[in-house]
Design brief:
Elements (H helix, E strand, L loop, with lengths): L1 H16 L2 H27 L1 E3 L5 E3 L3 H7 L2 H35 L4 H8 L6 H11 L6 H8 L14 H27 L3 H8 L4 H29 L3 H6 L11 H11 L3 H32 L1
Antiparallel strand pairs: 1-2
Helix pairs in contact: 2-13, 3-13, 4-8, 4-10, 8-10, 12-13
């Protein structure tokens, strides 16, 4: 009898102490409503011809064929990827450099972290409008300062060759603080014993940076690069607020093209299809990246 009571209590304790299903059920419901349902509905809409009016006819894969054969779509995709590479590259270099500099300073740097993360508190549309005014060739403060030192004023946002790098630079000003905060925290969490041993062996700062800091920081750098890349691939507010996709189409991203197709050209299904195709591409890229990472770890 004692044994049966003990087994019964053990079963009750297990059920009571590990209510995994009860805790996961609300999360799964929220996840389904927030992601799976909208994505499924978007795929459903992509199979129809809908122009915000009475037109709502089934066309199957017609929208997908139209998107895949649209040269402007692929040009917008290339611009989006180029923007991401430029913005993330600048942010990683500046963020890591700032993190190294602050880590060397040591104490009394709390105020400095606050200064670097201040831009993160501003929304994207506010950042874009602020920089649009600051870069204006007639009333902007930046062209005025450039004129004081003898540099001719350039309409950076109005030049088709410079507009996209300028928007990438604006994004870097806005988001470098995030990269800095994460990498600086990771630097502080690194074990000090290897650095102290290397210093005792006569290794200088640059050698310690190359052979210890960078290899040990590589995993978190990859994570930060991935987070920022996903965010940059969704760029819309900066383009909308600074250039409205221009001059011409030189800064039109995938998000902006889909928005313009759905709302300006009133081709809702086609705009939705553009984003579904883009999401599929990103999903394939993420799966491939994760697979390659696992293969490398397995072989290692």
């Amino acid at each position: 009898m004692t044994l049966s009571l003990s087994l019964k209590r053990g079963r009750n304790a297990t059920v009571g102490d590990n209510p995994t299903g009860a805790f996961l059920a609300p999360l799964l419901v929220v996840l389904t409503l927030a992601t799976v349902f909208p994505l499924g509905y978007a795929i459903f809409l992509s199979l129809f011809n809908w122009n915000w009016g009475s037109t709502f006819s089934f066309i199957g894969l017609g929208n997908y064929l139209a998107v895949l054969s649209d040269g402007e779509y692929w040009a917008s995709l290339a611009r989006t990827v180029l923007f991401t590479v430029m913005a993330v590259g600048i942010e990683l270099v500046l963020g890591f450099g700032l993190a190294l500099a602050v880590d060397r300073v040591g104490r009394n740097i709390g105020w400095l972290r606050t200064v670097f993360i201040l831009p993160l508190m501003v929304s994207g549309i506010v950042v874009s409008l602020m920089w649009k005014v600051m870069l204006d060739p007639t009333i902007g403060v930046i062209p005025w300062l450039a004129h004081l030192v003898g540099i001719p004023a350039l309409n950076l946002l109005g030049n088709s060759a410079l507009a996209l790098p300028t928007v990438a630079g604006i994004d870097s000003w806005w988001q470098t603080g995030f990269v800095f905060v994460v990498l600086q925290a990771a630097l502080q969490s690194l074990p000090r014993e290897p650095f102290e041993a290397a210093e005792l062996d006569g290794a200088g700062y640059l050698k310690r940076l190359r052979y210890l800091t960078v290899p040990m920081m590589a995993p978190i750098i990859v994570v930060v690069a991935g987070i920022r890349s996903i965010d940059c691939l969704k760029v819309f507010a900066l383009v909308f607020g600074t250039t409205n996709g221009g001059p011409g189409q030189s800064t039109s991203s995938i998000q902006f093209l889909a928005y313009r197709t759905a709302f300006s050209a009133t081709q809702m299904s086609l705009g939705v299809t553009m984003m579904v195709v883009f999401a599929m591409m990103i999903g394939i890229a993420v799966v491939a990246f994760v697979g390659v990472g696992r293969l490398r770890r397995t072989r290692g």
